[in-house]
């Protein structure tokens, strides 16, 4: 193949600015991490609430949880992102819409984080629900029998164990969040994907080097997420209890 | 407020249908191939063989740590170089998705196999069955039944992920919607329409999965 | 003479693959039936005809492969695509990877605005949101412009031109900086074409050309001869008129995009000079 | 102390309990037995409102359990319950298992709770294990902790649902011994169990259930002497044969 | 029939079995008992090679079980085994549970297998349930099916690992009855169980294990009369108290 290799490309300066391509990549990495982590926090909070709602003995709450999950998991993330970014502001009052469209600080970053966070929250909710349901009914009864209210039973008895049980599938979801964050470029977040697209353009087609670097950085992110969750798993491991995976 | 003009939707239907058919073909191919390959990988991971399980683990962990988009691009660029064959975007996508999804199916099937009590394996062996008979007649049928909902949920994710083939110029459901949106310069309407189409398809599928789950669950 | 390179491959496989873009109007884009059409597509088919004649293969199969700005170069390099008929800028960097046919179009990077905004120049845009498309030269041009003139835009980016235009249309941006032919095509297709104008001086002038594999003298010669032939015979002017100054699909409106002096010059003196040669 | 009046309960269309009536006075020990699926667990769970009922009434110290106005958590806090599978909280140490409800429900202080917890652990012979986790104890030890946990709430009565049936034979006795002691101290107890030795030793009355009905409700000696119903005779013969 | 010679086994560094030696002659019924975790299950699983051993030798009808040259599936096919948790295949009907191994291992035809299966189901009193699934049967019924399944392979001897300990008290007897019958017909049996009534009734010898060692290996009457070791005395007193 007549490909013109140039691994030194990363040290070259970008013609339109003072940075090198390597620095660019690192800026991209920074935004990727920022979007992913923000989204993950949103996903954990909303996913835990919605997943729990689906297991309480109240029809209406279950329905809310179910609707949430079905809405956010049945539409591809890219499409959801566009709905948040392009479609929803059209329904706001004129002034607010203009503010959201033009002046809202970090609007791309926030939109991407929220869209990705809610998308992921549907999956987290399913895991949380599965975790809660995998606990024997006896645990809930034991909590209630001691005089705990239902919320207290969830808080002190059910959720701490449910979360421990679902750490492995949550790890996958956390890794997925990093991977899925690559859609953020589509609304103009300067993330790794954005940078690599721009870099391919401005280097006159050093695609393979660029792709390799971006892939490696995504891989590192996902691995770091994996290690972090493993660490949490080992820290929260209950002595004497082997949680089946 | 934006002037919505949904007249592009009827014009887009033939292409959306074409795109849907491609998404469906890709999903089915990757599902069947991925489950087949994934089962082999899962058995390799659970096998006593150090090398075999290590190799399978590396394959699975690597693919699970890279965005699908990157895998699609790599395969599209590298397969012609490595194998010296020219390959259209469609074929390339099918191979890529099969290889990629196999890693995910592998983990699901592995969990399924591990969810079967060890006593079942012992019971099979105690009756004089060999490894293949025990796996084929006792463990895998149960593992698949237990994991069916998760396998199908993963397949729904896969269906959504087929939209990433836009990166190599294949035309799936979302791409068809986007292209029509561009041709007629009505992207907002087409994104909204795509959202609804995806929701209807995926929601119906997941409802079917739930029904199926009740129907075939093993009575315990 | 033995045939080799791309021509040999085409002869052996009985097929040739064109790389096409799906929304680089009017050079290469999809019509209402999602069939690819455009100025560069017409030229490419002229080249295909020449290949057929040369190889005496009237039944030569023509495959079309959609490419993106990301993958077009590697796909040409790795042999998936034989002739890229999109809207690729000929640059010195790219000439390290691929070869170009003689320049068939010259674009000016300018900006589209809503007429009502009264904006006529980039320098009026300090602190205002300006749109462009990710992964394009325009991003670099805008950044360079900012640096040169010490003004500060709020850049917003669309993932493709349609999205970027939507940013302008829905007031998320007050201007959209892009190749003028693309802007003209987007405006012509928009809901309310009269609302928009292409304004301001050119940020850059770029030669656009059909792309092919490097180090393949036989195929390059055939492509060059064909394109030069079109230019000599004046046929290229007809093609230009067909796509730039007459009504075109899908809406059957004309872009009314007169031929620039730079392009006239390129047709008078066919060449494959990179963009660097166009900088004054 | 506990009055169960005409209680019926359905799961969908399936009737689990049919017009069950009985009562337990202060200090009384009542053993509930009967074949599997006869509704013993369901009945005992209705007493502290873990299961709703569709008909009838249950009073615990005069409070109607299924009245929507009743503060259920408060009532449950004073009715100790021990489950077949112990149901200790696996993510908390033994002492935390004993403290958490005291602190969160009775609003006792950390120290007071721990004092009380350790005292009770001592009583069931497990003080040395206070800082271990449930998974590190044997089944018999876990069940003794579960009893201590219920006692930490100063219950006015105790409900046991097959407390020994998930235990290894060797460990059954260590748990029964604790229960016998409790009974002898005068605790009001309702015990679902198949351990007829325990019933013989400390029960005042035996309630025999079949298919959701209370078939026999007799003083211990009457029950073991000559059960009225054929079903109870049959059951006893099977249980006692080996 | 079965010879266990100096068998030792380790899980990593933890020694589960230490120099176990015993043998079972044709037609003999041997009961293995001992406290939880003493290695009973492990020992019985080494007999048909479900657990590898690191030292010693086990011969079944003269064939060395742990010799790499032994055709283990073939050997296992002739050693019936019944597990604590039944281990029926939940995705197959009862009759399929009885046929699958006959067909896949002994290469019997579908009909021959089904005939044999139905005959055995009849013997354990469950012919009427042939087309149900395991999940639809009670524990006692499932365990009887498991015994029938093992018998369908025409075993030369049977291994039982706590066959009644996962059962409701009422169901224990229906299973023990089947086992007593088997023993009385002269089947060679090795039975891990806590049911001393069963041991008294049909065992020829009792093996008592503690901490991976065989502590006592005595004729039934000697064992129940006056166990040598203190550990066995203690164990018996706990088991038999209630
Ligand atoms: N949540 C439920 N939904 C439907 N039916 C139920 C439910 N819980 C219990 N049942 C049924 O109610 C009946 C009584 O159950 P219960 O657990 O009270 O029996 P039990 O006497 O405690 O039996 P065991 O000795 O097996 O514990 C059984 O037939 C059981 O199948
Ligand atoms: N796979 C394993 N890995 C490590 N240790 C094990 C494993 N299986 C069993 N053990 C340990 O080996 C010892 C003996 O186990 P075994 O199951 O043979 O005991 P047992 O006498 O059958 O007890 P029980 O009456 O509880 O069934 C126990 O201490 C157990 O924890
Ligand atoms: Mg019960
Ligand atoms: Mg055992």
Overview of the structural elements:
The complex is a heteropentamer, with 1 copy of chain A (245 residues), 1 copy of chain B (220 residues), 1 copy of chain C (280 residues) and 2 copies of chain D (242 residues). Chain A contains 10 helices and no strands. Chain A is mainly α. Chain A has a domain at 29-190: Orthogonal Bundle (MetI-like fold), CATH 1.10.3720.10. Chain C is an alpha/beta fold and 280 residues long. Helices cover 37% and strands 27% of the residues of chain C. Chain C is built from 10 helices and 14 strands. The termini of chain C are far apart. The model of chain C has no long low-confidence stretch (mean pLDDT 90). With 242 residues, chain D is α/β, with parallel strands linked by helices. Chain D has helices at 40-47, 72-77, 94-104, 110-123, 139-151, 169-184, 196-202, 220-225, 230-240, and strands spanning 2-11, 14-24, 29-33, 55-60, 63-64, 79-82, 157-161, 188-192, 205-210, 213-219. Chains B and E meet through α5 and α6 of B and α2, β6 and α3 of E. The complex binds adenosine-5'-triphosphate (2 copies) and magnesium ion (2 copies). One magnesium ion (MG) binds at residues 40-41, 161-162 of chain E.
Which features would summarize this protein structure in a list?
heteropentamer, B: 220 residues, mainly alpha, MetI-like fold, 8 helices, flat, D: 242 residues, alpha/beta, 6-stranded mixed sheet, 4-stranded antiparallel sheet, 38% helix, 25% strand, binds adenosine-5'-triphosphate, binds magnesium ion, transport (chain A), AA_ABC_transptr_permease_3TM (chain A), ArtM/GltK/GlnP/TcyL/YhdX-like (chain A), transmembrane helix (chain A), MetI-like_sf (chain A)
